[in-house]
Amino acid sequence: MKFLITIFFSINLLFASTLELSITSNPSKLNPIISSDSASSEIEQWIFNSLLKYDKDGNIIPDLAQSFKLESETLLKFKLRKDVKWQDGKNFTADDVIFTYEKIMDKNIYTNLKSYFKLVESVKKIDDYNIEVTYKKPYFKALETWLIQIIPKHILEKEKDLMTSSFNRKQIGTGPYTLKEFKNSSDIELLANESYFEGRPKIDRILYKFFPDSNTSFLMLKRKKLDMGGLTPIQIDRQIDDKFRKNYKIIERPAFSYDYLGFNLKNDKFKNIKVRQALSLGIDRQELIDILFFGHGEICTGPFRPGSYAYNDTIKTPKRDKEKAKNLLKEAGYDESNPFSFEIATSTGGDRRINAAQIIQYQLAQIGVKVKIRVMEWQAYLNTIVHPRKFEAVLLGWTQVLTPDAYPLWHSKADKLGGFNLVGYHNKKVDELIEKGASTVDRKKLSLIYQEINKIIVEDLPYLFLYIPNSITVVNKKIKNVKPSFIGIMHNQKDWIKP
User: Fold this and answer.
1) What residues make up the domain containing 189?
2) Within its chain, how far is the Cα of 421 from the centroid?
3) pTM metric for this prediction
4) Domains in the chain: how many in total?
5) Whose CB among 126, 338, 364, 491 lies 3.0–4.6 Å from 130's, allowing a Cys bridge?
């Protein structure tokens, strides 16, 4: 009888709909409060939920919470859903939320999530489905704090060491899929959660195929062995054919990142804003995009993501003007007999930024600027150049988020060893606006504050904001209900149908 059941189960899986994806590295620990690598996050998104989440337009909406309300600038109330069950059948309650918070704050647990809760005064259970969160002072990320995924108290409360718990390899969550098995350097299989509170996913199974080499993933896409994957600009422009385009829908959107040329503002060479303005006018950013990404990108106009509340759409796209650049350099005391010169430091680990530095070197030579390029191994670059601020200019990139915090990069107090204000940017008005924004919970008022921060930073030119590459995703055309959005395509995956 047991044998027949096994055969029946195997036949069901054989004919079940399967979403075939790829993964290039091993997840470390599949526990959302202690893992920090992207591979773990990729798998955890299917298994766990948060109190709140982003909708397709980047707005915060309830997830495990039924509703939420900021009763005052320091009091946040949650009403939890009563129809949520853990994947072992136990009810989800306020106890799980309190337990997750307490574990994050536990001094014996190392997690980068602690900083998210620095302004939380208390998390109080009112009853099984109501919670009150009190903040020490008004905090502009009060809601974003609760985008963290919740873990089950009834399974983990007796664990002596969460860091080494067996749970980290065999999870129970509330999410749309359950983990069948997790082994290092192996495929990862997820099965649809029959009792998922938002309805069982329409695709029965997700199979992550382990390919350490990303080129293998591309080859598997070409052979129709994967349903979804990412392409590089050269792949989409030069390495796919009409047959590939017939099989896959191509979805392009700006990536959540940008590259920049940052100046050491404590170096006398860059203290004169006319020099920085001249260098900005001397660079053809569109040419950078055309050469580096075959046109698959857009010009970056500032530190905040286009479409986010912080983005200032009144800022004009910078355009090259060689004559104006030469005049500004002359006003700053530089000409053919006394040319401006500086060094760009960047790192190995992909040719993009090395090639970008070479293109910038060529472009700036046309306005009489002499550029040297220094390339180092990534860790050596960070430890000997970037962190100790021993550079004239650096070519680097930052990730963009939906709710940016300007403090780490742009506040003058972040100009310290270990801080991320790498270029030594100081502006009293920006400091005041950042501090005002940090205690502004009204999103419309916060938007106006951050748009002003955006404008001032761009005018000051501590960075030359260069480009935002495109994220290029391909999806099997047979899959129905794929709806691209501001935050990507996975927001409605449970509604996807694969014949």
Assistant:
1) 17-208+479-495
2) 19
3) 0.89
4) 2
5) 126
